[in-house]
């Protein structure tokens, strides 16, 4: 992928009740001789050429560099997608960067729809490894793939990200089923609910009605340069996702942990942290 230039843009994640920025999602962008490339195109091309590990690490480095440069440090939260089948350790030349990132960033690792079709045992090891590193887990695109709902009690994510289609379409039986399942999970665990793809005030109202307390989308902010902010994320994220000093420089987030046990699947923080009960149905901050 020598001809491919990878960079990160950062889309703000905000409180729906106040508009305060509490974090950013790092979104990979690339360009080549053929022009700009969306993330799906980038990874499809890399897989076809057997170079997905190289691309994944390029994306991780771009996200870490951009976040550190912009001052996206605690208490702000950085959301980042990972490819679960990337098992190579970080290149040695990025170890210093990863050490700084581990010390200064609060990371939420997002599992995308591509992750759900991966081998279940390896996916659980990945989740255990993420929590071993002191980071939190988000399950993305909930409502798009039926498997996502089934995996909620298994993966026990600290963050549930609702698929963008839920806030855009008229309420129907499927939407009601998804909302009820997510609400029950959030009530039981204290998970934070985020709505994606919000582009109109009506989308925001729909997201609030579905129980989301955080949101992102063009209405709230497009991907661009991140900025530091004084707003604090929900306590649920602050308690489960902490800046840290890596035990081993360059350890791959996606490397299977041979010492992970089933108990590591559960968050080390209390599921009943103060101030993190299920979001209200009216505009509110968790």
Beta-strand portion reads: 15-25%
Mean pLDDT: 77
Question: What name does CATH use for the topology of the domain at 5-152 and 216-246?
Answer: TIM Barrel
| Main sheet record | 8 strands, mixed, barrel
Strand line-up across the major sheet: 1-2-4-5-6-7-8-9
Approximately how much helix is present in the residues?
Answer: 25-40%
> What is the assigned CATH homologous superfamily of the domain at 5-152 and 216-246?
EAL domain
The outline comes out as globular
Instruction: Indicate the low-confidence ranges by residue numbers.
Output: 244-286
The secondary-structure class comes to alpha/beta
User: From N to C, what is the helix and strand string?
Assistant: EEEHHEHEHHEHEHHEHEH
The total of beta strands comes to: 9
The helix tally amounts to 10
Query: Span between N and C termini?
Result: 42 Å
């Amino acid at each position: 992928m020598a001809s491919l230039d990878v960079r990160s843009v950062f889309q703000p994640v905000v409180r729906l009740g106040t508009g305060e920025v509490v974090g950013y999602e790092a979104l990979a962008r690339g360009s080549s001789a053929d022009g700009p490339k969306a993330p799906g195109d980038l990874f499809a091309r890399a897989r076809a050429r057997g170079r997905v590990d190289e691309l994944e690490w390029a994306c991780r480095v771009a996200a870490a560099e951009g976040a550190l440069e912009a001052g996206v440090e605690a208490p702000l939260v950085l959301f980042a997608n990972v490819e679960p089948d990337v098992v190579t350790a970080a290149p040695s030349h990025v170890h210093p960067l990863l050490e700084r990132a581990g010390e200064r960033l609060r990371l939420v690792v997002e599992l995308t729809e591509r992750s759900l079709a991966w081998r279940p045992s390896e996916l659980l090891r990945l989740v255990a490894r993420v929590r071993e590193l002191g980071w939190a887990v988000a399950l993305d695109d909930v409502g798009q793939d039926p498997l996502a709902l089934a995996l909620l009690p298994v993966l026990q994510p600290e963050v549930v990200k609702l698929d963008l289609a839920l806030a855009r379409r008229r309420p129907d039986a499927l939407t009601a089923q998804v909302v009820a399942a997510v609400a029950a999970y959030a009530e039981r665990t204290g998970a934070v609910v985020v709505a994606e793809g919000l582009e109109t005030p009506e989308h925001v109202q729909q997201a609030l009605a579905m129980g989301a307390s955080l949101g992102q989308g063009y209405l709230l902010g497009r991907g661009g340069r991140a900025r530091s902010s004084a707003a604090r994320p929900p306590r649920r994220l602050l308690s489960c996702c902490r800046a840290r000093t890596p035990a081993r420089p360059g350890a791959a987030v996606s490397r299977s942990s041979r010492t992970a046990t089933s108990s590591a699947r559960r968050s080390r923080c209390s599921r009943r942290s103060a101030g993190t009960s299920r979001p209200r149905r009216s505009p509110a901050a968790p």
